[in-house]
Amino acid sequence: MDQARIDALRGQPVPPFGHLIDGKIVPASDGAVMDVTSPLNGEVLTTSARGTALDMETAIASARTAFEDRRWAGQSPAARKKVLHKWADLIEAHALELAVLGVRDNGTEISMALKAEPGSAAATIRYYAEALDKVYGEIAPTAGDVLGLIHKEPVGVVGAIIPWNFPLMIGAWKLGPALAMGNSVVLKPAETASLSLMRMAELALEAGLPPGVLNAVTGEGAVVGEVMGLSMDVDVLVFTGSGGTGRRLLDYAARSNLKRVYLELGGKSPNVIFADAPNLEEAAKVAAGGIFRNAGQVCVAGSRLLVQASIHDEFVAMVAQVTEQMQVGDPLNLSTQIGAVNSEAQLAQNLAFVDTAQAEGGTVTTGGTRVLQETGGSFMAPTIVTGVTPDATLSQKEVFGPILAVTPFETDEDAVRIANSTVYGLAGAVWTSNLGRAHRMVRDIRAGVMHVNTYGGADGTVPLGGVGQSGNGSDKSLHALDKYINLKTAWIKL
Ligand code: NAD
Protein backbone atom coordinates (compact mmCIF):
# COMPACT_ATOMS: atom_id res chain seq x y z
CA MET A 1 0.00 0.00 0.00
CA ASP A 2 1.19 3.39 -0.97
CA GLN A 3 1.41 6.13 1.70
CA ALA A 4 0.79 8.78 -0.98
CA ARG A 5 -2.67 7.36 -1.73
CA ILE A 6 -3.54 7.49 1.96
CA ASP A 7 -2.22 11.04 2.28
CA ALA A 8 -4.35 12.11 -0.67
CA LEU A 9 -7.46 11.06 1.27
CA ARG A 10 -6.53 12.16 4.78
CA GLY A 11 -7.67 15.78 4.54
CA GLN A 12 -10.64 15.36 2.23
CA PRO A 13 -13.86 16.96 3.45
CA VAL A 14 -16.40 14.39 4.66
CA PRO A 15 -20.02 15.15 3.74
CA PRO A 16 -22.71 14.92 6.45
CA PHE A 17 -24.09 11.41 6.97
CA GLY A 18 -27.82 10.57 7.20
CA HIS A 19 -29.68 7.36 8.01
CA LEU A 20 -30.29 4.66 5.42
CA ILE A 21 -34.02 3.90 5.51
CA ASP A 22 -36.06 2.13 2.85
CA GLY A 23 -33.29 2.49 0.29
CA LYS A 24 -32.83 6.23 0.78
CA ILE A 25 -30.37 8.39 2.69
CA VAL A 26 -32.50 10.57 4.96
CA PRO A 27 -31.90 13.09 7.79
CA ALA A 28 -33.26 12.62 11.32
CA SER A 29 -37.02 13.22 11.51
CA ASP A 30 -36.36 16.39 13.50
CA GLY A 31 -33.24 17.34 11.53
CA ALA A 32 -30.90 16.88 14.53
CA VAL A 33 -27.25 15.97 13.97
CA MET A 34 -24.28 14.85 16.10
CA ASP A 35 -20.75 16.16 15.59
CA VAL A 36 -18.30 13.44 14.57
CA THR A 37 -15.02 14.30 16.31
CA SER A 38 -11.82 12.73 15.06
CA PRO A 39 -9.60 11.21 17.75
CA LEU A 40 -6.62 11.97 15.46
CA ASN A 41 -6.72 15.71 16.16
CA GLY A 42 -9.87 16.51 18.13
CA GLU A 43 -11.43 18.27 15.12
CA VAL A 44 -15.00 17.89 13.91
CA LEU A 45 -14.86 15.68 10.84
CA THR A 46 -18.51 15.92 9.82
CA THR A 47 -21.95 15.30 11.31
CA SER A 48 -24.16 12.24 11.44
CA ALA A 49 -27.92 12.09 11.92
CA ARG A 50 -28.96 12.05 15.58
CA GLY A 51 -31.65 9.40 15.30
CA THR A 52 -35.04 9.86 16.94
CA ALA A 53 -37.37 7.16 18.22
CA LEU A 54 -39.47 7.77 15.10
CA ASP A 55 -36.44 7.18 12.84
CA MET A 56 -35.80 3.79 14.43
CA GLU A 57 -39.48 2.85 14.27
CA THR A 58 -39.60 3.81 10.58
CA ALA A 59 -36.49 1.74 9.85
CA ILE A 60 -37.92 -1.29 11.67
CA ALA A 61 -41.23 -0.94 9.82
CA SER A 62 -39.36 -0.81 6.51
CA ALA A 63 -37.40 -3.96 7.41
CA ARG A 64 -40.60 -5.72 8.50
CA THR A 65 -42.38 -4.91 5.22
CA ALA A 66 -39.34 -6.04 3.21
CA PHE A 67 -39.32 -9.32 5.12
CA GLU A 68 -43.05 -9.99 4.89
CA ASP A 69 -43.26 -9.40 1.12
CA ARG A 70 -40.28 -11.73 0.61
CA ARG A 71 -38.51 -9.33 -1.73
CA TRP A 72 -35.18 -10.78 -0.53
CA ALA A 73 -35.90 -14.16 1.10
CA GLY A 74 -38.07 -15.05 -1.89
CA GLN A 75 -35.26 -14.61 -4.41
CA SER A 76 -33.39 -17.67 -5.61
CA PRO A 77 -30.24 -18.56 -3.69
CA ALA A 78 -28.22 -17.90 -6.84
CA ALA A 79 -29.65 -14.38 -7.11
CA ARG A 80 -28.96 -13.60 -3.45
CA LYS A 81 -25.46 -14.99 -3.75
CA LYS A 82 -24.78 -12.72 -6.73
CA VAL A 83 -25.85 -9.61 -4.82
CA LEU A 84 -23.66 -10.47 -1.81
CA HIS A 85 -20.64 -11.14 -4.04
CA LYS A 86 -21.23 -7.83 -5.82
CA TRP A 87 -21.34 -6.14 -2.43
CA ALA A 88 -18.01 -7.73 -1.48
CA ASP A 89 -16.58 -6.56 -4.84
CA LEU A 90 -17.69 -3.00 -4.09
CA ILE A 91 -16.23 -3.11 -0.57
CA GLU A 92 -12.93 -4.23 -2.06
CA ALA A 93 -13.08 -1.57 -4.77
CA HIS A 94 -13.63 1.09 -2.06
CA ALA A 95 -11.27 -0.51 0.47
CA LEU A 96 -8.88 2.40 0.84
CA GLU A 97 -11.67 5.00 1.03
CA LEU A 98 -13.49 2.92 3.68
CA ALA A 99 -10.35 2.27 5.70
CA VAL A 100 -9.21 5.91 5.75
CA LEU A 101 -12.72 7.14 6.61
CA GLY A 102 -12.91 4.60 9.44
CA VAL A 103 -9.48 5.56 10.81
CA ARG A 104 -10.35 9.27 10.77
CA ASP A 105 -13.47 8.37 12.74
CA ASN A 106 -12.15 5.82 15.27
CA GLY A 107 -8.34 6.15 15.35
CA THR A 108 -7.23 2.58 14.56
CA GLU A 109 -3.79 2.46 12.94
CA ILE A 110 -4.21 2.20 9.17
CA SER A 111 -1.95 -0.86 8.80
CA MET A 112 -4.39 -2.82 10.94
CA ALA A 113 -7.55 -1.14 9.60
CA LEU A 114 -6.69 -2.05 6.01
CA LYS A 115 -6.46 -5.71 6.94
CA ALA A 116 -9.09 -6.02 9.63
CA GLU A 117 -11.74 -3.70 8.28
CA PRO A 118 -12.67 -3.64 4.54
CA GLY A 119 -10.49 -6.67 3.76
CA SER A 120 -12.01 -8.84 6.43
CA ALA A 121 -15.55 -7.49 5.87
CA ALA A 122 -15.44 -8.37 2.16
CA ALA A 123 -14.08 -11.84 2.95
CA THR A 124 -16.87 -12.41 5.48
CA ILE A 125 -19.60 -11.34 3.06
CA ARG A 126 -18.14 -13.69 0.43
CA TYR A 127 -17.92 -16.58 2.92
CA TYR A 128 -21.65 -16.32 3.69
CA ALA A 129 -22.53 -15.68 0.03
CA GLU A 130 -20.89 -19.02 -0.74
CA ALA A 131 -22.54 -20.72 2.23
CA LEU A 132 -26.12 -19.68 1.53
CA ASP A 133 -26.94 -22.37 -1.03
CA LYS A 134 -25.31 -25.11 1.02
CA VAL A 135 -27.66 -24.94 3.97
CA TYR A 136 -30.11 -27.82 3.64
CA GLY A 137 -33.15 -28.81 5.64
CA GLU A 138 -33.40 -32.34 7.01
CA ILE A 139 -35.62 -35.41 6.84
CA ALA A 140 -36.08 -36.92 10.29
CA PRO A 141 -35.60 -40.69 10.89
CA THR A 142 -39.27 -41.26 11.70
CA ALA A 143 -41.46 -44.38 11.53
CA GLY A 144 -42.58 -45.28 8.01
CA ASP A 145 -46.13 -43.93 8.20
CA VAL A 146 -45.05 -40.31 8.61
CA LEU A 147 -42.59 -37.92 7.06
CA GLY A 148 -40.83 -35.46 9.37
CA LEU A 149 -39.27 -32.52 7.55
CA ILE A 150 -37.11 -29.92 9.26
CA HIS A 151 -37.14 -26.59 7.43
CA LYS A 152 -34.62 -23.83 8.07
CA GLU A 153 -36.32 -20.46 7.78
CA PRO A 154 -35.11 -16.89 8.20
CA VAL A 155 -36.12 -15.46 11.56
CA GLY A 156 -37.43 -12.10 10.32
CA VAL A 157 -36.09 -8.70 11.35
CA VAL A 158 -32.60 -8.69 12.87
CA GLY A 159 -31.45 -5.73 14.96
CA ALA A 160 -27.64 -5.48 14.84
CA ILE A 161 -25.87 -3.21 17.34
CA ILE A 162 -22.18 -2.62 16.59
CA PRO A 163 -19.30 -1.19 18.73
CA TRP A 164 -16.67 1.31 17.66
CA ASN A 165 -13.47 -0.70 17.60
CA PHE A 166 -13.85 -2.62 14.30
CA PRO A 167 -17.14 -1.42 12.78
CA LEU A 168 -16.75 -3.04 9.35
CA MET A 169 -15.35 -6.37 10.52
CA ILE A 170 -17.87 -6.82 13.33
CA GLY A 171 -20.68 -5.35 11.20
CA ALA A 172 -19.97 -7.93 8.49
CA TRP A 173 -19.92 -10.75 11.06
CA LYS A 174 -23.61 -9.94 11.70
CA LEU A 175 -24.75 -8.72 8.26
CA GLY A 176 -23.17 -11.56 6.27
CA PRO A 177 -25.00 -14.51 7.88
CA ALA A 178 -28.20 -12.52 8.61
CA LEU A 179 -28.65 -11.46 4.97
CA ALA A 180 -27.42 -14.79 3.58
CA MET A 181 -30.24 -16.56 5.44
CA GLY A 182 -32.86 -14.17 3.99
CA ASN A 183 -33.53 -11.90 6.98
CA SER A 184 -34.00 -8.13 6.92
CA VAL A 185 -31.68 -6.08 9.12
CA VAL A 186 -31.72 -2.81 11.00
CA LEU A 187 -28.20 -1.72 11.83
CA LYS A 188 -27.23 0.57 14.70
CA PRO A 189 -23.58 1.68 14.46
CA ALA A 190 -21.71 3.10 17.47
CA GLU A 191 -21.87 6.82 18.13
CA THR A 192 -18.09 7.22 17.85
CA ALA A 193 -17.48 5.09 14.74
CA SER A 194 -20.37 5.07 12.32
CA LEU A 195 -19.10 6.60 9.09
CA SER A 196 -17.37 3.68 7.36
CA LEU A 197 -20.14 1.27 8.36
CA MET A 198 -22.84 3.60 7.00
CA ARG A 199 -20.86 3.86 3.77
CA MET A 200 -20.54 0.06 3.60
CA ALA A 201 -24.31 -0.25 4.08
CA GLU A 202 -24.89 2.16 1.17
CA LEU A 203 -22.71 -0.05 -1.02
CA ALA A 204 -25.07 -2.97 -0.35
CA LEU A 205 -27.84 -1.06 -2.11
CA GLU A 206 -25.53 -0.29 -4.99
CA ALA A 207 -24.88 -4.04 -5.21
CA GLY A 208 -28.58 -4.69 -5.72
CA LEU A 209 -29.87 -5.44 -2.21
CA PRO A 210 -33.56 -4.44 -2.39
CA PRO A 211 -34.56 -1.29 -0.47
CA GLY A 212 -35.69 -1.96 3.09
CA VAL A 213 -33.74 -5.20 3.47
CA LEU A 214 -30.90 -3.32 5.14
CA ASN A 215 -31.66 -0.12 7.06
CA ALA A 216 -29.17 1.74 9.23
CA VAL A 217 -29.89 4.35 11.89
CA THR A 218 -27.25 6.41 13.69
CA GLY A 219 -27.71 8.07 17.06
CA GLU A 220 -27.44 7.44 20.75
CA GLY A 221 -27.68 3.93 22.12
CA ALA A 222 -29.92 5.10 24.91
CA VAL A 223 -32.41 6.52 22.38
CA VAL A 224 -32.45 4.57 19.10
CA GLY A 225 -30.82 1.46 20.59
CA GLU A 226 -33.46 1.31 23.28
CA VAL A 227 -36.29 1.64 20.75
CA MET A 228 -34.77 -1.24 18.81
CA GLY A 229 -34.41 -3.33 21.96
CA LEU A 230 -38.00 -2.74 23.02
CA SER A 231 -39.53 -3.17 19.56
CA MET A 232 -42.24 -5.79 19.12
CA ASP A 233 -41.18 -6.08 15.48
CA VAL A 234 -37.53 -7.04 15.93
CA ASP A 235 -37.12 -10.82 16.19
CA VAL A 236 -33.43 -11.15 17.03
CA LEU A 237 -30.90 -8.79 18.55
CA VAL A 238 -27.24 -9.42 17.76
CA PHE A 239 -24.87 -7.26 19.73
CA THR A 240 -21.19 -6.66 20.26
CA GLY A 241 -20.25 -4.28 23.03
CA SER A 242 -20.07 -3.88 26.76
CA GLY A 243 -21.64 -6.09 29.41
CA GLY A 244 -23.69 -3.18 30.75
CA THR A 245 -25.45 -2.69 27.42
CA GLY A 246 -25.80 -6.46 27.06
CA ARG A 247 -27.73 -6.58 30.33
CA ARG A 248 -30.02 -3.80 29.10
CA LEU A 249 -30.75 -5.70 25.89
CA LEU A 250 -31.80 -8.79 27.86
CA ASP A 251 -34.06 -6.56 29.92
CA TYR A 252 -35.59 -4.97 26.79
CA ALA A 253 -36.30 -8.43 25.39
CA ALA A 254 -37.96 -9.50 28.64
CA ARG A 255 -40.10 -6.35 28.67
CA SER A 256 -41.19 -6.65 25.03
CA ASN A 257 -41.55 -9.67 22.74
CA LEU A 258 -38.95 -12.06 24.25
CA LYS A 259 -36.82 -11.59 21.14
CA ARG A 260 -33.68 -13.71 20.92
CA VAL A 261 -30.59 -11.85 22.18
CA TYR A 262 -27.04 -12.84 21.24
CA LEU A 263 -24.28 -11.05 23.09
CA GLU A 264 -20.59 -10.71 22.23
CA LEU A 265 -19.19 -8.90 25.25
CA GLY A 266 -15.86 -8.02 26.76
CA GLY A 267 -12.97 -10.06 28.06
CA LYS A 268 -9.92 -10.08 30.30
CA SER A 269 -8.04 -12.68 28.35
CA PRO A 270 -5.03 -14.50 29.88
CA ASN A 271 -1.87 -15.01 27.83
CA VAL A 272 -0.02 -17.76 29.75
CA ILE A 273 3.74 -18.07 29.23
CA PHE A 274 5.46 -21.22 30.50
CA ALA A 275 9.23 -21.42 30.88
CA ASP A 276 9.25 -24.13 28.19
CA ALA A 277 7.71 -21.85 25.55
CA PRO A 278 9.32 -22.76 22.21
CA ASN A 279 10.62 -19.26 21.51
CA LEU A 280 10.45 -16.60 24.21
CA GLU A 281 11.49 -13.82 21.85
CA GLU A 282 8.60 -14.61 19.53
CA ALA A 283 6.26 -14.95 22.53
CA ALA A 284 7.30 -11.48 23.77
CA LYS A 285 6.73 -9.91 20.37
CA VAL A 286 3.32 -11.54 19.94
CA ALA A 287 2.28 -10.78 23.54
CA ALA A 288 2.96 -7.05 22.99
CA GLY A 289 1.08 -7.05 19.66
CA GLY A 290 -1.73 -9.08 21.26
CA ILE A 291 -2.51 -6.30 23.71
CA PHE A 292 -1.30 -3.07 22.15
CA ARG A 293 -2.53 -3.12 18.53
CA ASN A 294 -5.51 -0.79 18.01
CA ALA A 295 -4.47 0.75 21.34
CA GLY A 296 -5.77 -2.30 23.19
CA GLN A 297 -9.30 -1.74 21.91
CA VAL A 298 -9.73 -5.33 20.86
CA CYS A 299 -12.26 -7.57 22.59
CA VAL A 300 -9.92 -10.59 22.52
CA ALA A 301 -6.83 -8.58 23.58
CA GLY A 302 -4.43 -10.58 25.76
CA SER A 303 -4.71 -8.07 28.59
CA ARG A 304 -3.43 -10.35 31.36
CA LEU A 305 0.08 -11.74 30.97
CA LEU A 306 0.61 -14.71 33.29
CA VAL A 307 4.32 -15.58 33.39
CA GLN A 308 5.92 -18.59 35.08
CA ALA A 309 7.94 -17.25 37.99
CA SER A 310 11.27 -18.79 36.86
CA ILE A 311 11.33 -16.61 33.71
CA HIS A 312 9.23 -13.69 34.97
CA ASP A 313 11.85 -10.94 35.13
CA GLU A 314 13.63 -11.99 31.97
CA PHE A 315 10.39 -12.28 29.99
CA VAL A 316 8.86 -9.03 31.24
CA ALA A 317 12.06 -7.23 30.23
CA MET A 318 11.72 -8.72 26.73
CA VAL A 319 8.09 -7.60 26.42
CA ALA A 320 8.98 -4.15 27.73
CA GLN A 321 11.76 -3.83 25.17
CA VAL A 322 9.41 -4.71 22.28
CA THR A 323 6.75 -2.37 23.69
CA GLU A 324 9.07 0.60 24.00
CA GLN A 325 9.99 0.20 20.34
CA MET A 326 6.37 0.19 19.15
CA GLN A 327 5.52 3.34 17.26
CA VAL A 328 2.56 5.27 18.68
CA GLY A 329 1.28 8.08 16.54
CA ASP A 330 -0.48 9.27 13.42
CA PRO A 331 -2.96 6.48 12.67
CA LEU A 332 -2.83 7.33 8.96
CA ASN A 333 0.89 6.63 8.77
CA LEU A 334 1.55 3.11 7.49
CA SER A 335 4.45 2.58 9.89
CA THR A 336 2.38 3.42 13.00
CA GLN A 337 1.81 0.35 15.18
CA ILE A 338 -0.45 1.89 17.83
CA GLY A 339 -3.07 4.43 16.79
CA ALA A 340 -5.33 6.71 18.79
CA VAL A 341 -7.57 5.86 21.70
CA ASN A 342 -11.14 6.17 20.39
CA SER A 343 -12.20 9.20 22.43
CA GLU A 344 -11.13 11.55 25.19
CA ALA A 345 -13.56 9.82 27.56
CA GLN A 346 -11.95 6.45 26.84
CA LEU A 347 -8.46 7.92 27.37
CA ALA A 348 -9.45 9.40 30.74
CA GLN A 349 -10.84 6.03 31.78
CA ASN A 350 -7.58 4.28 30.75
CA LEU A 351 -5.47 6.70 32.80
CA ALA A 352 -7.74 6.19 35.82
CA PHE A 353 -7.07 2.43 35.56
CA VAL A 354 -3.32 3.12 35.78
CA ASP A 355 -3.83 5.18 38.96
CA THR A 356 -5.96 2.44 40.51
CA ALA A 357 -3.43 -0.26 39.58
CA GLN A 358 -0.65 1.69 41.32
CA ALA A 359 -2.80 2.35 44.37
CA GLU A 360 -3.41 -1.40 44.60
CA GLY A 361 0.32 -2.21 44.60
CA GLY A 362 1.13 -2.57 40.89
CA THR A 363 4.29 -1.08 39.36
CA VAL A 364 4.23 0.74 36.04
CA THR A 365 7.19 -0.77 34.18
CA THR A 366 6.69 1.20 31.00
CA GLY A 367 4.20 3.80 29.72
CA GLY A 368 1.31 4.88 31.94
CA THR A 369 0.83 8.32 30.42
CA ARG A 370 -0.89 10.31 27.73
CA VAL A 371 1.42 11.12 24.81
CA LEU A 372 1.43 13.35 21.72
CA GLN A 373 -0.95 15.82 23.35
CA GLU A 374 0.36 18.53 21.02
CA THR A 375 -1.44 16.82 18.11
CA GLY A 376 -4.82 17.46 19.74
CA GLY A 377 -5.45 13.72 19.40
CA SER A 378 -6.10 11.07 22.06
CA PHE A 379 -2.95 8.96 22.39
CA MET A 380 -1.62 6.81 25.21
CA ALA A 381 1.76 5.13 25.66
CA PRO A 382 1.51 1.33 25.73
CA THR A 383 1.61 0.47 29.39
CA ILE A 384 2.88 -2.54 31.34
CA VAL A 385 1.98 -2.94 35.00
CA THR A 386 3.76 -5.69 36.95
CA GLY A 387 2.95 -7.16 40.34
CA VAL A 388 -0.79 -7.20 39.61
CA THR A 389 -2.49 -9.65 41.94
CA PRO A 390 -5.29 -11.85 40.56
CA ASP A 391 -7.91 -9.99 42.59
CA ALA A 392 -6.71 -6.48 41.67
CA THR A 393 -8.98 -4.20 39.64
CA LEU A 394 -6.60 -4.44 36.67
CA SER A 395 -6.96 -8.24 36.70
CA GLN A 396 -10.71 -8.20 37.08
CA LYS A 397 -12.05 -5.31 34.98
CA GLU A 398 -11.82 -4.89 31.25
CA VAL A 399 -9.92 -1.71 30.38
CA PHE A 400 -10.31 -1.78 26.60
CA GLY A 401 -7.09 0.21 26.32
CA PRO A 402 -3.31 -0.28 25.92
CA ILE A 403 -2.62 -1.61 29.42
CA LEU A 404 -1.08 -5.01 30.16
CA ALA A 405 -1.39 -6.52 33.65
CA VAL A 406 1.43 -8.94 34.54
CA THR A 407 1.03 -11.65 37.17
CA PRO A 408 3.52 -14.43 38.03
CA PHE A 409 2.51 -18.06 38.59
CA GLU A 410 4.35 -21.20 39.71
CA THR A 411 2.54 -24.36 38.57
CA ASP A 412 0.07 -25.49 35.90
CA GLU A 413 -2.69 -25.53 38.51
CA ASP A 414 -1.83 -21.95 39.52
CA ALA A 415 -1.98 -20.85 35.90
CA VAL A 416 -5.43 -22.36 35.37
CA ARG A 417 -6.77 -21.01 38.65
CA ILE A 418 -5.57 -17.46 37.93
CA ALA A 419 -6.64 -17.62 34.27
CA ASN A 420 -10.16 -18.62 35.31
CA SER A 421 -10.45 -16.12 38.16
CA THR A 422 -12.54 -13.51 36.29
CA VAL A 423 -16.18 -13.39 35.25
CA TYR A 424 -15.09 -13.42 31.61
CA GLY A 425 -14.26 -16.19 29.16
CA LEU A 426 -13.55 -14.79 25.73
CA ALA A 427 -10.00 -15.69 24.63
CA GLY A 428 -6.63 -16.85 25.93
CA ALA A 429 -3.32 -18.39 24.97
CA VAL A 430 -0.74 -20.80 26.26
CA TRP A 431 2.91 -20.88 25.23
CA THR A 432 4.63 -24.22 25.85
CA SER A 433 6.60 -26.95 24.05
CA ASN A 434 4.79 -29.64 26.00
CA LEU A 435 1.94 -31.02 23.88
CA GLY A 436 0.10 -32.55 26.82
CA ARG A 437 0.28 -29.30 28.78
CA ALA A 438 -0.97 -27.34 25.75
CA HIS A 439 -4.04 -29.56 25.40
CA ARG A 440 -4.72 -29.52 29.14
CA MET A 441 -4.61 -25.71 29.17
CA VAL A 442 -6.91 -25.50 26.15
CA ARG A 443 -9.33 -27.80 27.97
CA ASP A 444 -9.11 -26.20 31.41
CA ILE A 445 -9.02 -22.47 30.66
CA ARG A 446 -12.52 -21.12 30.26
CA ALA A 447 -12.68 -19.25 26.95
CA GLY A 448 -14.34 -19.15 23.56
CA VAL A 449 -11.00 -19.28 21.75
CA MET A 450 -7.65 -20.56 23.05
CA HIS A 451 -4.44 -19.99 21.10
CA VAL A 452 -1.36 -22.21 21.39
CA ASN A 453 2.05 -20.61 20.77
CA THR A 454 0.43 -17.65 19.03
CA TYR A 455 -2.12 -14.95 19.81
CA GLY A 456 -5.00 -13.75 17.61
CA GLY A 457 -5.44 -14.11 13.88
CA ALA A 458 -8.11 -16.86 13.92
CA ASP A 459 -9.83 -16.62 10.54
CA GLY A 460 -13.48 -16.74 9.47
CA THR A 461 -13.68 -20.53 9.38
CA VAL A 462 -13.76 -20.81 13.18
CA PRO A 463 -16.34 -19.41 15.63
CA LEU A 464 -15.73 -16.51 18.01
CA GLY A 465 -17.96 -16.32 21.02
CA GLY A 466 -17.63 -15.96 24.74
CA VAL A 467 -18.60 -17.96 27.78
CA GLY A 468 -19.51 -16.62 31.21
CA GLN A 469 -20.01 -12.85 31.12
CA SER A 470 -18.23 -12.63 27.76
CA GLY A 471 -21.49 -13.52 26.08
CA ASN A 472 -23.34 -16.25 24.24
CA GLY A 473 -23.63 -17.44 20.64
CA SER A 474 -20.87 -17.14 18.07
CA ASP A 475 -19.87 -14.89 15.23
CA LYS A 476 -17.93 -16.30 12.24
CA SER A 477 -17.95 -19.77 10.70
CA LEU A 478 -21.01 -21.79 9.63
CA HIS A 479 -22.11 -21.94 13.29
CA ALA A 480 -23.05 -18.24 13.14
CA LEU A 481 -25.85 -19.11 10.69
CA ASP A 482 -27.82 -20.75 13.50
CA LYS A 483 -28.53 -17.35 15.06
CA TYR A 484 -30.37 -16.24 11.95
CA ILE A 485 -32.63 -19.22 11.27
CA ASN A 486 -35.68 -20.81 12.83
CA LEU A 487 -36.19 -24.56 12.65
CA LYS A 488 -39.69 -25.52 11.55
CA THR A 489 -41.01 -29.07 11.63
CA ALA A 490 -43.48 -30.37 9.07
CA TRP A 491 -45.03 -33.64 10.36
CA ILE A 492 -46.80 -35.33 7.47
CA LYS A 493 -49.03 -38.40 7.76
CA LEU A 494 -48.42 -40.61 4.74
P1 NAD B 1 -21.17 -0.17 24.33
O1 NAD B 1 -21.94 -1.27 24.92
O2 NAD B 1 -21.10 1.11 25.04
O3 NAD B 1 -21.77 0.20 22.89
C1 NAD B 1 -21.95 -0.77 21.90
C2 NAD B 1 -23.14 -0.40 21.06
O4 NAD B 1 -24.29 -0.45 21.89
C3 NAD B 1 -23.10 1.00 20.47
O5 NAD B 1 -23.61 0.96 19.15
C4 NAD B 1 -24.01 1.78 21.37
O6 NAD B 1 -24.62 2.87 20.75
C5 NAD B 1 -25.05 0.73 21.72
N1 NAD B 1 -25.81 1.02 22.94
C6 NAD B 1 -25.39 1.70 24.04
N2 NAD B 1 -26.39 1.77 24.95
C7 NAD B 1 -27.46 1.13 24.42
C8 NAD B 1 -28.77 0.86 24.88
N3 NAD B 1 -29.20 1.30 26.06
N4 NAD B 1 -29.58 0.15 24.07
C9 NAD B 1 -29.17 -0.30 22.88
N5 NAD B 1 -27.94 -0.05 22.38
C10 NAD B 1 -27.09 0.65 23.14
O7 NAD B 1 -19.76 -0.76 24.00
P2 NAD B 1 -18.55 -0.02 23.28
O8 NAD B 1 -17.93 0.86 24.28
O9 NAD B 1 -18.95 0.55 21.98
O10 NAD B 1 -17.63 -1.25 22.91
C11 NAD B 1 -16.64 -1.71 23.74
C12 NAD B 1 -17.05 -3.01 24.34
O11 NAD B 1 -17.34 -3.97 23.33
C13 NAD B 1 -15.95 -3.64 25.15
O12 NAD B 1 -16.47 -4.12 26.36
C14 NAD B 1 -15.47 -4.79 24.29
O13 NAD B 1 -14.84 -5.82 24.93
C15 NAD B 1 -16.69 -5.19 23.61
N6 NAD B 1 -16.38 -5.91 22.37
C16 NAD B 1 -16.64 -7.25 22.33
C17 NAD B 1 -16.34 -7.98 21.18
C18 NAD B 1 -16.64 -9.47 21.08
O14 NAD B 1 -16.61 -10.01 19.99
N7 NAD B 1 -16.94 -10.14 22.15
C19 NAD B 1 -15.80 -7.32 20.08
C20 NAD B 1 -15.54 -5.95 20.18
C21 NAD B 1 -15.86 -5.25 21.33
Number of DSSP-assigned strands: 21
Cα shape: globular
Main structural class: alpha/beta
> What percentage of residues falls in helices of 4 or more residues?
25-40%
Give Rg in angstroms: 23 Å
Can you tell me the CATH topology of the largest domain?
Aldehyde Dehydrogenase, Chain A, domain 1
Mean residue pLDDT: 97
Separation, N- and C-terminal Cα atoms: 63 Å
Assembly state (oligomeric): single chain
Q: Could you say how many structural domains there are in total?
A: 2
Biggest β-sheet description: 7 strands, mixed
CATH class of the largest domain: Alpha Beta
Strand order of the largest sheet: 14-17-18-13-12-19-20
β-sheet strand percentage: 15-25%
What are the distinct ligands in this entry?
nicotinamide-adenine-dinucleotide
Molecular structure report:
The protein is an alpha/beta fold and 494 residues long. The chain has two domains: 3-265 and 471-491, Aldehyde Dehydrogenase, Chain A, domain 1; 270-459, Aldehyde Dehydrogenase, Chain A, domain 2 (3-Layer(aba) Sandwich). It is built from 15 helices and 21 strands. α10 packs across α11. It is globular. It starts with a helix and ends with a strand. The site of nicotinamide-adenine-dinucleotide (NAD) has 30 residues, from α8 and α9.
